[in-house]
Amino acid sequence: MAFISSGYDPKQPMKDRITDIGPRKFDEFYPPVIAKNKGKWLYHEYLQPGVLVHVAESGDEVYTVRCGGARLMSTGLIREICEIADKHCGGHVRWTTRNNIEFMVDNKSKVKPLLDDLKGRKFKGGSFKFPIGGTGAGVTNIIHTQGWIHCHTPATDASGPVKAVMDELFADFQDHRMPAHVRVSLACCLNMCGAVHCSDIAILGYHRKPPMLDHEYLDKMCEIPLAIASCPTAAIRPSKVEFKGEKVNSVAVKNERCMFCGNCYTMCPSMPLADTEGDGIVIMAGGKVSNRISAPKFSKVVVAFIPNEAPRWPRTTHIIKNMIEVYSKDARKYERLGDWAERIGWERFFEKCELEFTHHLIDDFRDPAYFTWRQTTQFKF
Amino acid sequence: MEYEEAKQKIVETLTKKLKTKSKFYFNDLAKILESKPREAKKVVNKLVQEGVLEYWSSGSTSMYGLSGTGKQAGAEGEDKEK
Amino acid sequence: MAKHKTPMLDQLESGPWPSFVSDLKEQAQRRAKNKEGVEFQIPTDVVEDLLGVLELSFEHGRTHWKHGGIVGVFGYGGGVIGRYCDQPEAFSGVAHFHTMRINQPGGKYYKTDYLKQLCDLWDLRGSGITNMHGSTGDIILLGTTTPQLEEVFYELTHNMNQDLGGSGSNLRTPSDCIGSSRCEYACYDTQGLCFDLTQEYQDELHRPAFPYKFKFKFDGCPNCCVASIARADLSFIGTWKDAIKIDQEAVQGYIGGEFKPNAGAHSGRDWGAFDIQKEVIGLCPTECMIMDGKTLKINNKECNRCMHCINVMPRALRIGDQRGLSVFAGAKAPILDGAQMGSLIVPFIEAEPPYTKIKEEVIEPIWDWWMEEGKNRERLGELMKRQGLQRMIEVLGVDPDPRMVQEPRSNPYIFWKEDEVEGGWDRDIEEFRKHHQR
Fold it and tell me: Touching check for C407 and chain A: CB below 8 Å?
């Protein structure tokens, strides 16, 4: 392959350099019906799962078809999305915060041809390219992080478990039978670069072993003061270690202080912590970000650990599916999963969901732990 | 403080510390310059533009170091590519 | 014929949900065939090797990526994440596999000509694999080599009028909800404010000088579709001060079953006939609504704008006209001291361009405080916890407001300052002893 220059001259990086221009301005990309009616929308309605209509003061309507998408996406697939948008939507398309793709048309007559086109598109492997759904009181797309496809500290994969879980929940992606909407999220380690801590159901990758120490290379590969400073719990200290008869500079880790975050591995590649048996999944439940009826709340840990079971994570998917089934049968209309658990009591939640309550689920991390213990006679047998 | 004086201060202090570490937080630089963060930033930006300092990032946190120094840069061959 | 066997990944091709494995495999084939005759600037088999190394991770239950300290293009301290494969011989196509973050447009609206141009660029100079989108909101271009970083940046800025996003200790790429562009609940123009602040603070976005990351997120209403209250250091949530507007005829439309409650969001199950008493009035957290004969009445002074009644009856109830936003500060994910929600610091502020008050009276004083007093890698929320909400109020120069707390303190251990106490702390012990024996 021959090198093709963009025009950039490595010897003069500042020549003709353009910086600090920011993103493209949103209104360059608005479909005409959006540009015309911005700020003048009257109401909306879900015509069926995955299909919305918004009606403006002017009488204009915009019909939106929402499709699930894997956020990991090839240019080939994006080009296909463009082809659909060119064919049906005047060359406009958008994504939602939860990795869904939205095709918008300005007339009801354009909806059915769009739906038919989308339904017919499948990958050669058999899955839908553009499943329609993700609206209202159902299960929408999972937001997630990178996992094994790109991250250096994940304790689980992201795209794999997401595919496995969404296959299991697929019927509810295309339905409106839940008491309220159900938001599932995944972060592949406790650093949570995707903030999942306020989701109805959160899937969280977790390491359980402190880093290994590659004493032979540690001082050659890493700057020891930086490795020490990277530790949020101050568990790392400098140490002289005997290695093959020689004293070498290295570090020592106070294992019982380690919270398995992987920050040291980021600073020092000689401190890897990934481990086949050590790594797995924590399930959290009952969080929300909306201020509707009740205040936003954090998700709580309901399963302390499930091993990574690639490629389809059967225990993880089973527990999630079951939790959603129990919730959907037992909760009241408009009640989010966390509101339901609080109404019936968490003791009842564990009973109904047939989840084991282990000592790992009792908070012992710093001050806030106390506020999670029971300080009333009001509990249920 | 004049820019040249500031530059000299930074280079001297960071070079002295090279034996133990090559990367520094922005706050460390502001302390060396004995100035408020916003003032220090102007100097630091210029030092980066001139290639005296370079950034290092953990993805979540950024640090600064003298260009081309540090053990990890060597290990990854990033120094050679420049 | 695939370069690597992927028996475990292959099992993720079945099932209805879009399979990323199928997508990657088809992309690998497209690259191998190269119908368009693209002069690929990184290895043609990059996607094959990506599948190969992922299969290995599925086998091992461990990642095969290492972090690299490379940060960006010349003069920028963010926008690129360095990645190296720890099996570079077996998977040479992904030996260097850096990510670039591209600042997404507001509302994630696109025109296809822009997307196609981006695809052309990324096919030529990268893996052709993306995330649409990353958690923060950026378009993520996944995987290229070091020499291509500047080339991609040059093309983005010169041919596409497009800049990188943020990473590291800087202002992260701000993101917004769909806002008033297509949502009747939006109390301000989220995309307008998001874009304005992104442009205003380009230096903060590209040149890290903060103690740690800093996030802005913009939600148009208290439904919080972009989750700003859970994850943004400064979260801007739309709200209003006056009365909810009621269309009594439409209320009757819901009661009579002409309109579907909650805009049809519950259509998958028979929940019985709509019962306004049970479903709206009874669930109102402040009990500020009643039906007076055929008239729905709201005691707006007591309403806390939770959105429930509006969500259930969007054709009958509308947000008020005196609109603006509330500002919450300090949200963050759990590490280290536990997760924090944003805390209310400004109950109401107007959100009209040029947004001078928001910049000069909220954002900039907070940055000055945090940059001077924040410890390395301390998020704003942690500084707030360490120094207290009272300190934040002092920084903003605003009066304390009971809206800022859930409840007043339940301990009386008030650290009075000397100037708050009449006469100060200097007292005359001799004078005291005149009346009190030793």
Answer: no
Which of C147, C168, C203 is nearest residue B60 as measured by Cβ atoms? C168
Report if residue B9 sits inside a domain: yes
Q: Encode pLDDT of C294-327 as tens digits.
A: 999 999 999 999 999 999 999 999 999 999 999 9
pTM to 2 decimal places: 0.96
Interval C74-130: pLDDT, tens: 999 999 999 999 999 999 999 999 999 999 999 999 999 999 999 999 999 999 999
Residues C125 and B56: their CA atoms lie apart, in Å, by 23
Closest approach of C350 to chain B, Cα-based (Å): 28
The complex scores an ipTM of: 0.96
Instruction: Indicate if C51 and C139 belong to the same structural domain.
Output: yes
Shared domain for C226 and C154, answered yes or no, is no
CATH number at residue C280: 3.30.70.20
CATH number, domain containing residue B71? 1.10.10.10
Closest chain A residue to B59 measured between Cα atoms?
A266
Question: Using CB atoms, which residue from B26, B36, B78 is nearest to C208?
Answer: B26
**Same-domain status, C349 and C401:** yes
Task: Give me the half-sphere count of Cα atoms (radius 13 Å) on the Cβ side of residue C59.
Answer: 11
Phi, psi of B58, deg, nearest 5: -90, 5
Is A260 within 8 Å of chain C by CB?
no
- C288-306 burial, b at 16+ Cβ within 10 Å, e below that, comes to bbeeeeeebebeeeebebb
Asked whether the beta carbons of residue C206 and residue A20 sit closer than 8 angstroms, the reply is: yes
Are the Cβ atoms of B38 and C368 closer than 8 angstroms? yes
Overall domain count for chain C: 3
Residue A182 near residue A138 (C-beta atoms within 8 A): yes
Closest residue in A to B58 (Cα) is A266
Residue C215, phi then psi, degrees to nearest 5:
-120, 135
